[in-house]
Structure prediction request, 116 residues.
Amino acid sequence: HKVDPTKYKAYLFKIAYNSMIDIIRKQKNEVDMETTNIPESHSTQTEYKGLKQILEKAFNEISEIQKNVILLRDYEGYSYAEIGEITGLNESQVKITIFRGRQALQKILGKMEDYI
Prediction:
């Protein structure tokens, strides 16, 4: 009753987001990435074969909040204001976090480029 009807989507996503973080934190020590069944893409192009592993490794090296805001912005397509509502950050903090997260990813991926 207290939620603005125009913001139901952001409210529900925030609840799901917080619940997922709680679950992940509880299971963090129990998860073994080698045995986790992650569906592979059906791409036939061989040049992208190891891209998923490279991106996962890079994302695991940045902070949790940077990872979340980047995924919300670039993958889910949320606006800065919606991300702020979901994460509890103001719009400026969201922009700064995304910028710093992208810089960190660029730095990490640049280092990985030497080993590929």
Q: What stands out?
A: The chain has a mean pLDDT of 77. The two ends are 54 Å apart (CA to CA). The first helix runs from residue 8 to 27. The chain has five helices and no strands.
